[in-house]
Amino acid sequence: MSFRPSELRYSTRPVEPGTLADFRAYAYETGRVIERDGLMVLGFGNAASLELAGGLSDPASLALALAQLRAVPPLSPEPSAEPGASLSKYGPAPVPLALGALFFDRRADGKLVVPELTILAGQARPPTALVVGPPDRVARLFAEMSRGLPEIVTAPHEREAAPPDEFRLASARPHQDFLNRVKAALAEIASGRLDKVVLAREVSVHANRPFSQADLLGRLRALHPSCAAFAIDGFIGATPELLVRRSGPEIASEPLAGTAARSGDPDADRMAEAALLSSSKERSEHRVVVDTISAALAPVVAHLEVPEEPVIRRLRNVSHLGTAITGTLAEREGDYPSALELVALLHPTPAVAGTPVDLALDYLAKLEEMDRDRYAGPVGWMDARGDGEWYLGIRSAIVTGCSARLFAGVGIVADSDPAAELAETQLKLQAFLAAAVRP
Hints:
Blueprint: E1 9-14, H1 20-30, E2 32-36, E3 39-44, E4 48-52, H2 59-70, E5 97-101, E6 110-114, E7 117-122, E8 128-133, H3 135-147, H4 151-154, E9 167-171, H5 175-190, E10 196-207, H6 213-223, E11 228-232, E12 235-239, E13 242-247, E14 250-254, E15 256-261, H7 266-278, H8 280-297, E16 301-305, E17 311-314, E18 318-322, E19 325-329, H9 339-346, E20 354-355, H10 357-367, E21 378-383, E22 388-392, E23 396-400, E24 403-412, H11 418-436
Antiparallel strand pairs: 1-8, 2-3, 2-11, 3-7, 4-6, 5-21, 7-8, 9-10, 10-20, 10-24, 11-12, 12-23, 13-14, 13-22, 14-19, 15-18, 16-19, 17-18, 21-22, 23-24
Helix pairs in contact: 1-6, 5-11, 6-11
């Protein structure tokens, strides 16, 4: 559906106490979800689409997407008449936003969806409903909400009576094939043409009955509470890696690179983390990612804080080296670069492509021989103010009915060991497999 801002209006109002859990349950079933500690974004229905012709490679498309969001007027021109006016004591009321999961290939056409109904909940404000649509539709949805959950939320959908209980796992290619690809990448690095390349593996899971989005999301949130769980049109996962967050002029990014397995034994895990922190290979790989992100942000910031030393980021079955980058954007013609523009500056990072980035992408296009689709692409949201939050779509799968395509990638550098890199992909695949396969 094309975006016609002149035909749309938006309005906000608080969500009735006690109904947030119901909205969340239905969004887990069939909606679009981005949820982390401190923020929940739940989307229902499609008010419109923002088409990104040329994906992240076309600045004009990114600017148009923001302009289209900003062109949607409030239902009432008087802020005091807005149903959401009572929210003002918590800061600016929500404005139209769009969610999306973009392809790894930054040149591929993309799309963001503006939900008809968005439920926003976080630490800074009470749960809020944001409705976008033609004026009569906005009024009708709010009327339905005054009587309970609207039909757009509770509309029945087909679901198997029982979850799947038989599973068949298959690697897209034999292990030896991946080992050979690692060796080929090492030869390319030894030639001096590349410093690093991130190779990915694909594993498919076939079940006897369709996977349930609600079951997958619920388990992912329980297993990986420190990650951002997401479900965007069949792309489901729990990612630990924040690509960029923008709130007014304030920005943040938290790259992860460098991995060690966790065993559950405290002493063994402490030793593994100490080895990770002292590893010149892992530290060097991590620093390249941090420096690349910092250099990409440098032209648009007034200030950037980049810690010299990484810290350990603990997940359920692995630990990573992480660096929390924060900064303040430089003002540009009375505004700041939008969250989507910042994504375009940063994606893909060396953490998912390699270095030099352009040469690594050329290598992958010719020799990886795998369609990454949305794996390792940006997943998140942006609103009409240009604020937003975008993550790398890793620890994820593309789910269609009874099938799920899982992906995991590893960074290959000069002293990588092929067997160890294969084992690392198996560790990372467990992040989703533990939620999907329930014998």
